[in-house]
Amino acid sequence: MKISWGTVLARFLAIAIAALVLAGCRDLTSSTGVTTPPIVVHAVLDLGSSDQFVLITRARTGGDGTTGTNVGSGAPVNGALITITGPNGVQMFATPDHFRDGTPVPGQYRISLPQFGEVLVPGASYALHILLTTGERVSGSTTVPDVAPIRGDINNLQQFRITRDTIRLSWQRISVARGYEAHVETPQVVYSTFVDTSFMMAGTARTIDDDPLFVLGVPTMVVISAVDQNYYEYYRTPSDPFAGTPPSNLTGAVGFFGSIVPIISQGYLPR
Q1: Contact 183, 237 (CB under 8 A)
Q2: Which residues face 67 on adjacent strands?
Q3: 167 or 63: whose pLDDT is higher?
Q4: Helix (H, G, I), strand (E, B), or coil: what is residue 100?
Q5: How close are the terminal C-alpha atoms of the chain, in Å?
Q6: pLDDT (0 to 100) of residue 152
Q7: Which pTM was predicted?
Q8: CA–CA separation, 170 and 172 (whole Å)
């Protein structure tokens, strides 16, 4: 049960859909008065994973010609040419991602670092470039928090008494990191929040739906990740339909290109 950006892609998709609903606030209108629904890109470099993902969608246009009225899950954008260029100038090309049965995942792309003999470098800057079949171009950049990643091991579980114990974690500030994300995951629940340099959660904690976060005998992973400014500002900004989309660091699209580095990864076995 290794936690990485790839394994929590469901959360990534859910927030992407919410962003698509808000994207109507930023339609692009040409000189002819024709409104083009915006491209929405979500891309994250995760130093805890050898696979990196890029999700590209276009906000749907409703029957009345407006965007954001009948968005649904947005329209996946296929056929994009995607490159991520590192500090050494090596270009890593993304390929369409596939389900286990071999069918393509609409609008989702993967970069496998081993294919290019590359590893992501803490503290380094990376550039994202996207060319769509329509001729539209998207670009962005991220600087990775300057710390080596920690990999968790589900086989190394700490015993955790739900009624008596509290998880307490703390760490030193990290260069380049804008903030820190605490991520708690079980097979049934995924919970994330931004914190400063410490995290505390009681065994009796419950979700917003009043379900217990910790369940007897169910392994629970807690991962603390240092995140860059792009990731922090995008996900920390509340999704308000009156305020528009969260801040974007991209040119040619809404969304973001950011980076995260897991710095603490610990498994617990509630009892």
Answers
A1: no
A2: 61
A3: 167
A4: coil
A5: 19
A6: 67
A7: 0.81
A8: 7
Quickly tell me which residue has 């400014």 as its tokens.
Answer: 229
Tokens 């769509």: give the residue: 132
Higher pLDDT, 14 or 160: 160
Strands 104-112 and 51-58: antiparallel
Largest CA distance in the chain: 66
Neighbours of 126 (CB within 10 A): 21
pLDDT at 24: 40
Both tokens of 235, joined, read: 């996900």
Q: How far apart are CA 90 and CA 187, in angstroms?
A: 37
- DSSP single-letter state for residue 242: T
Backbone dihedral angles phi then psi of residue 162, each to the nearest 5 degrees: -55, -45
* Average of per-residue pLDDT across 201-223: 92
- Give 233's Cβ-side CA count (13 Å radius): 15
Distance CA 70, CA 60 (A): 7
Residue 180 has pLDDT above 80, yes or no: yes
What single-letter amino acid sits at 264? I
- H-assigned helices in the chain: 9-22, 229-236
Taking 70 as the threshold, does the pLDDT of residue 140 lie above it? yes
Question: Tens of pLDDT along 77-117?
Answer: 999 999 999 999 999 999 999 998 889 999 999 999 999 99
Average per-residue pLDDT for the chain: 83
Amino acid at 122: P
To the nearest 10°, report the CA torsion of 20, 25, 31, 35: 50
Q: Which pair of tokens denotes residue 164?
A: 């008596």
- Beta carbons within 8 Å of 106's beta carbon, 6+ residues apart: 76, 78
